[in-house]
Amino acid sequence: MNTATTGNATITLNEGLLSRRNWFDWLFAALVVGGGLFAFQRYAAFMDVYEKGILLAAVPSLVALGWFWRPLRALMLVVAGAALLGIASYQVDGQGQLARAESVFWLKYFLSSQSAILWMSVLFFMSTLFYWLGFFQRSGTAAAASGRSIARRSPGWSAP
Would you kindly state where each structural domain of the chain is located, as residue ranges? Predict the structure, then answer.
């Protein structure tokens, strides 16, 4: 934060949005922009105008999401890497072969099998269940405390 004094008034200058970015932020932004431009260059002929707009709007949205929610950057990079690994696993001589889903170990047992889809469904259900359990467990005391403080501020409330 910078301050400047002019006469009797002091002006406080806050840091700019871009000055708070570190090297990993810029590397992440470059990877997202590069990936978006590569996808646009490679697949634009197969997209209609709406899909092109979605792709072009997704690039700055993902950069902003990664900049303002920093733990999500690593997750996005891991998911992108796993997706590229899956795409590369289907490739034979530059062409995708769906039959490789039965012969490639990674695809057969982890990525595209029925058991993988079952485990994804079970883990999604379990994560939702544990989220709500944690939410209600923490909110029990928080709701009671906030309820009392709201009640104290309201007119006509009398202490027991």
Answer: 113-151
